[in-house]
Write a structure and sequence with these properties.
The complex is a heterodimer of chains A (about 80) and B (about 475). Chain A has about 80 residues and is an alpha+beta fold. Helix content of chain A is about 40%, strand content about 25%. The relative contact order of chain A is 0.28. Chain B is of the alpha/beta class. Chain B has 20 helices and 15 strands. Classes of the chains: A alpha+beta (about 80), B alpha/beta (about 475).
Amino acid sequence: MKNVTLEFCVGTACHMKGAPELLAVLDLMPPEIRSQVQISFTHCLEKCGDGPNVRIGGVVYSSVTPERLIELVKQQLS
Amino acid sequence: MSTRNSETTGIKRQLYTALADMTWRGRLFEEINAYPDTLVSTLTTRYRCCEYKEKAILSERLRVAMGLAPGEVGSHATLAEMAAIALSKTPKSKHCTLEMIAAACDRCPFEKYIVTDVCRNCVAHHCRVTCPKDAITIVNHRAYIDRTRCVECGLCERNCPFRAIIQVTRPCEQACAPKAIIRDNNNVAAIDCEKCVTCAACIPACPFGSVADYTQIVQVVHALKQAAAPIHALVAPSFVGQFGAKASPAALRLALLELGFTAVHEVASAARGVAAEEASEVQGRMEQGEQLTLSSCCPSFVAAVNTQYPDLVGCISQVPSPMAYQAAAIKKGDNAGMTVFIGPCVSKKAEAASLPQVDAVLTFEELGCIFVSRGINLATLSGAGELGDAEALGRGFAKAGGLTKAVTAVLGEGVIQTQVAHGLDEINEVLSAAQRGQLQANFVEGMACVGGCIGGHGALINRQVAEKLLERYLR
């Protein structure tokens, strides 16, 4: 089974731009998908103006919305 | 706080951060006139009819963010002139802290029942037949409601088999429990300050972001920058987790000191004193035959009693709120200077307006924007210790029931009957019962926000998340 690791930036700039809403998405995922998602937190991904930022497989995604995050997770798992 | 970080919230925070940034750099007067142009050119989505309207609304938002009401600036004042007015005054809060920005209001339909395109001009015409006031006629092959006759009973809506008639309420009106939203002659929404209790429910309710609260961002940043006198940060108990999963209480203290605050105080440390005074007030009143005491911590609750339950005004406790209590203690000390209350609450801005000991109020959201403007990242600040020296009992004030718990701890279990009411709907139920003399309680803790202060509109995280973090922190 495939796994995906999401690195959430929880720095203050990303926090103000919507990081909490991204973390809330995790609770809404179906259990079978949630079990394939590992999460970790990072202090800064050095794109503070474009937050919220999430790093997946070494790639930093910026201005991530909850909808986009779900899409990215689906892509990684397919 | 709404569960989604909406686009209106995003724009608001962008403006707050930009204002703080310009003030730090000492370039506010030079740069603010051009700022709406700059921002409009970077926005990828156009929200309004044209960019001129967009800029006009942004200018109004900047005025409100600088803490200025329409009457305080000339009708043709430039933003730079407004900024000069904002900084020339000693920062002071306003009694009416919310403004319906008239230019931003989209004048949503206010007719309660509307016939939509779904109407098929059927043969039965249940709408017309059931209307008790003969308000429905058929115009252009469609049902038409004569507003002069309609009494908004809703029978037409319920009886249309196609559901072609819908009920519409303006989101601001729907959100406003004290019914303080009115309409001006042009059908633009407005706030009746005599009825408004500053619960701020209308701010997230309006999808156009028309309601804004006055802030003291530029005034506080200016004072921090000048550092002419000591500046005290008084942080509300609900701070736990507000600045992100990796921001510890110690990190918040360090970040505030880095901004230039002289000292950081936990308002929760005033809780012991407040609870003790509240307990003796309740007991004292009971000895005099006054069976009911209403809490005084939440300014919106106090305002709701004052405006809607005149018979109960005498029941409001005379004990100062924790903010008032602690600010007074600081002002009496040797190192008095400026006091800035920081919390999740818009209503505290209104309360502070009548308190000489509180100079300014910031919400967590406004403070967060000030941190961002300085490039301060709480997740990278690590330090030992706490935010301040409060006890768990005081930190529990952040949640509905916390005050009651502290008062009960002073008096002992079972000495008085208590009732916690949070959210204005619940408050109305409890106060109505009290007014009818049907409430079995000696002490009512009233909190206008559902969940208590952690559910405040100036909070940065979801209430349920905040509740979990607070419970963990208090253990």
